[in-house]
Amino acid sequence: MDCNHLEDLYELYVLGVLAAGERDDVRKHVGEKCPRCLDALREAAETVYWLAQTVAPVQPRPTVRAGLLRRLASNGTLAAGPRKARVISQRGATSTRSRA
Amino acid sequence: MTRRSSSAISSAPATAVESSNPATPEALVAQAAEGSREALIQIYDRFAPRLLGLVRRLLRDADESERVLEEVFVKLWREAHQVARARVSLAAWLTLVTRAQAVNRLRSRAGPVPLVPADVLGDMLQWLPDPGAIVRLDERRALLQKVLGQLPRPQIKSLELVMFEGCNEIELADNLGEPLARTKSELRAATRFLKHRRRAVVGSWTVTI
């Protein structure tokens, strides 16, 4: 399937509502680093981001922040810091970094 | 790797000095990637209320929503390197990951199949917007709100069901009592309209809103 037939699918792909066949069509283009599809998905992500901003904020209880801090500090894996793993750049290039 | 102390962030939210000259979210995630828990907590202080609003809209359960919120920030901590290196908008990453996790939690109440498959989220670093695009959208939030008001009511309803109720297209048709083909067509018309109007609002098209 070429990009013209995917025109109306990008937002729905980002929202995760496409059926498997159409989802696979978009994913195939992403896998091939199709620049047109990647640009269209960037725009779709902006639209979904914008829709999400229509919801009123809700202040979390202080216990959530405290619990997160506790978890970052005490859990062995998390306390070791973020993982330096295989990295995919915005342009799709890959590189590998080892843990410092 | 330089490990930073977390003692300064044990309880207090961002200070007045930080808020008068705030680091960008992307600068903070780069610091978090180097092991700064302080940077991660600054990100939390800045984004958590908006993200929790989104989760609560989907789950409608305070405790469960806060658990999802915590998981999002644990995921960010684990994946900070990838996010920082991809140079994408952190606000967009947080928003899409938060929604996906909330939707999947919502759907796990009914069955094990996630609405947003892991492989869709897995390729997002290739196509998330850059920080500048999201800043431009944030600056024009009021105009964008106006655009939503221009959508026909049935299309708004469809968008809400997909965006905030986690419906897929088949469930959307069931919910609206409409044929699937018509529902799909309406939903796609709505997203097409939003795409074109968003382009106008951020300045790449010239249209009077």
Structural description of this entry:
The complex is a heterodimer of chains A (100) and B (209). In chain A, 53% of the residues lie in helices and 6% in strands. Chain A has 100 residues and is mainly α. In chain A, strands 1-2 form a two-stranded antiparallel sheet. Chain A is elongated and about 50 Å long. The C terminus of chain A is likely disordered. Chain B has 209 residues and is mostly helical. Chain B is 70% helix and 0% strand. Chain B is globular, with a radius of gyration of 19 Å. The relative contact order of chain B is 0.08. At the A-B interface, α1, α2, α3 and α4 of A face α3, α4, α5, α7 and α8 of B.
Quick description:
The complex is a heterodimer of chains A (100) and B (209). Chain A is mostly helical.
The percentage of residues in β strands of chain B lies in: under 5%
Radius of gyration of chain B: 19 Å
What is the rounded distance between the termini of chain A?
Answer: 44 Å
H/E series of chain A: HHHHHEE
Compute the separation of the termini of chain B in Å.
50 Å
Sheet of most strands of chain A = 2 strands, antiparallel
Instruction: Briefly note the structural class of the backbone of chain A.
Output: mainly alpha
Radius of gyration of chain A: 19 Å
Oligomer: heterodimer
Residue share in β-strands of chain A? 5-15%
Which of globular, elongated, flat, extended, rod-shaped describes the shape of chain B? globular
Strand runs of chain A, count: 2
**Most extensive interface between two protein chains, with residue counts:** A-B, 63 and 88 residues
- Count of runs of 4 or more consecutive helical residues of chain A: 5
Flag low-confidence runs of chain B. 1-19
